[in-house]
Amino acid sequence: MMIRCSEKHRQECLAYLRQNPSLNLFLIGDIENYGFNQGFQTVFIDKDEFVHGIYLVYYHNLVIASEENRVDPQFVERLVQEYEIQAIQGRKEVLEGLALDAFSREECLFCELNTLKAESVSDPQIREAQPQDAGRIKGLLDEVFQMDNDAAMIAHRIETREGRHFIIERGGQVICQANSTAETAEAAILGGVATRADWRRQGLASAVMTALCGQLLSEGKKPCLFFENEEAGRIYSRLGFAPIGRWTLMLRQKEGSR
Question: 134, 187, 225, 254: least surrounded by Cβ within 10 Å?
């Protein structure tokens, strides 16, 4: 039976999700940060005598978790219509039972780091970013990922600790960076690993990731990330990341693209 959650379900939801704290990081973080009474977030629990899954709607995104790989396609279709869902995420095994013609499907590896293999690099120009660095970080991310990032949002994330950025500078420019995108007490998702084209293949990405991961591990948080690029995979493997599952992202296709 699907039940719309309220504050009284907090402990039950989090206890279920913490059976797999890394793979359920997004859901744990959103429940801890935003709870059950926000207009942009709605949480449902699938339960009878036992809990079978959690469905979390965040704006127009849906994340599904089920330890027994159980999903209700009819309920998902209802959520897609009611909340105008644009993206659905979850472990590959959970989402395999969904067949939604309006959505494309992408898969990647989900990896976790327990122990750093790489030693920290002593470089005074590797440091944790401050809000005043946001404009230069934006410049790097815009160049590498070919998209327009918001400097004010980056500054806000740094200031509120919603995400931490580690950077490397040369000549007043941010030439390499990596950041956390979501954190809980147990784990953190990493992303935004970027190096300017003329500074690549010098070990800078490994160095900045080592600094970021070292800080997270010292706080008892396991760094986690997604990847599908083979070259990135080699870097992460050298640092000590190991696959713990496959992740599926389903994106609503634009009209006329199907």
Answer: 254
Largest CA distance in the chain: 62
Distances (CA, A) of 225 to 105, 117, 131, 179, 257: 19, 16, 24, 11, 29
What is the torsional sign of CA 146, 57, 179, 94?
A: negative
Query: Which pLDDT value is given to residue 124?
Result: 67
The pLDDT assigned to 125 comes to: 78
pTM of the model: 0.86
Give CA angle at 51 (30, 248), nearest 5°: 55
| 235: exposed, middle or buried (Cβ count in 10 Å: 0-12, 13-18, 19+) | middle
Q: Which helix (H) or strand (E) holds 46?
A: strand 41-47
212 alpha-carbon distance from chain centroid? 15
pLDDT score, position 130: 97
Sign of the alpha-carbon dihedral angle for 89, 94, 100, 105: positive
Which segments of the chain have a pLDDT < 50? 258
